[in-house]
């Protein structure tokens, strides 16, 4: 008597699909780097800012490190840890001023999540280690005033070619 091969093959295929679906779960944190993973050591502290589109999933992220190095990434669905596409050095005084302004954000301005179809964001940690995560863009809301000023200060660091 012959055993049908279709039954074991379907079982094997079904197990493979189920295990593959488990690996496709979406991460709970949508930003490039969870604030808990950002170091608070002054030599490696970093501040991420940029903008994106919920329609196209395109995101442009700039990372300012405390040592004045500014890294840029742009792309669709940027995965965590993807390499930067550009790097430049900003004056140390301007980098320190940006980190001072980040530390000066009021306690109620450290978390604000109101992204719209086109959004702006700021992420990082204060010198005291408090996570900062701000995303705004909805037409009916405004980000905290200090966050908007910091974002404008950071945008001024970018050269026109970047």
Automatic annotation (TrEMBL):
Name of the protein described by the UniProt record: Uncharacterized protein
Organism of provenance: Hymenobacter gummosus
